[in-house]
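name: query_chain
kind: protein
chains: 1
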Amino acid sequence: MWRNNPVNYRIKSNNEKFDNLAEFIDNLERGGEIEFIYNSKNFSITHSDGKLCLIEQSKDQSMVDFNNIQELLEYTIDDKKIKDVVTIIQPFFRCF
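structure:
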């Protein structure tokens, strides 16, 4: 786990933005999957075989696997680390 003090975040609707990085991490730690738009591109974050997968939708060759959330958060999309844009992305599907 990433956080020392777990917080119970309110379950939001599919298109509500994340309020902060901790809420985003909480969603992923609970097995949540997220589909979102960033810079007019659609992305998905899923869980598979104990790893996290990020893919730009409609670009199968863009799939990247991560061993943990920390690695995912350091990944860059359009020169921005994911951890720096979690409150900017526009989710259109999110579970948990």
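note: DSSP finds three helices and seven strands in the chain.
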